[in-house]
Specification:
With 273 residues, this protein is α+β, with helices and mostly antiparallel strands. It contains 7 helices and 16 strands. Helices cover 30% and strands 27% of the residues.
Length: 273
């Protein structure tokens, strides 16, 4: 396959697939009972995760059969490591919220080239909010151009994070600064950051590539920065496919936040595998 790929047609494919996947997920979401299983402690799997995974696999690889595939709900195929282009997908990011009927779950799609994010689509079907973007082309919210927050001071900055991470004290290093809002899906948090509905997102807990790839692409497409806590890059299609921390914001806030978090301790990996 040619090394270079025009991103806009692939972005359209991803947007269309996300909308279709969202419709399938939403039909299950509104059922009185949703079948679910436990993959591990505090790690549920629903019938919607599997249905959406099948649809996205068919749509995305159908449009680009030579691309690699990494999804939370697909058996990992090491062949992806030899692919230049790889779809990184979380069929439903926020399965706990999905099962609890909390409207903070999303369909998350990212595309990487040699490990670097190229485009992302994050769709919250409950809110009918689709955020899409490609690096160098900007981002949109339901087709309307959007931008990052222009906030340049940590004092009073709007931080989104998980309530469980807040309870564990992960945000204590900046508790004198931020306005905190609990949001479920990781991809949703990063999408809200990318379109300027909050100022900061960070986590000191381990995250898989599929948790963050789509949102990472959106933040970068919007002109923001996403790194690990020590400032090192986050690259994708790695053998382990997991990172120990994520820090995202506009470039000015990102630099300030890294400085504040320099001595912060990472949280333990509760789902080590």
């Amino acid at each position: 396959m040619a090394e270079q790929q025009p991103l806009h047609p692939l972005l359209v494919v991803a947007e269309t697939a996300a909308r279709a996947a969202g419709a399938v997920a939403l039909s299950i979401y509104h059922q009185a009972e949703v079948r679910s299983w436990e993959k591990g402690e505090d790690n549920p799997l629903s019938e919607a995760d599997l249905a959406v995974d099948r649809l996205l696999h068919e749509r995305l690889l159908g449009a680009a059969p030579d691309f690699g595939w990494l999804s939370e709900e697909s058996l990992d195929d090491p062949a992806r490591l030899a692919r230049d282009w790889v779809w990184v997908v979380d069929p439903i990011d926020g399965t706990k919220e999905f099962l609890q009927k909390v409207p903070h779950w999303t369909v998350s799609i990212g595309l990487v080239h040699h490990g670097v994010v190229q485009l992302g689509v994050v769709f919250n079907p409950s809110e009918d909010l689709l955020v899409a973007g490609a690096v160098g082309e900007g981002i949109t919210t339901n087709g309307v151009p959007a931008t990052l927050s222009a906030t340049t001071e940590l004092v009073g900055a709007h931080l989104v994070g998980s309530r469980s991470e807040q309870k564990r004290g992960e945000f204590d290093d900046v508790r004198d600064l931020y306005r905190f809002e609990a949001v479920g899906s990781i991809a949703y948090k990063m999408a809200l950051l990318a379109i300027g509905r909050c100022d900061l997102y960070y986590t000191l807990s381990p995250k898989h590539e599929w948790d963050i790839c789509g949102g990472h692409a959106l933040v970068v497409a919007a002109g923001g920065r996403v790194t690990q806590k020590d400032g090192t890059p986050i690259l994708y299609n790695q053998p382990k496919a997991k990172y120990r921390s994520v820090v995202a914001a506009n470039p000015i806030l990102h630099a300030q936040l890294l400085a504040r978090l320099k001595g912060a301790e990472l949280s333990p990996d509760l789902h080590a595998r």
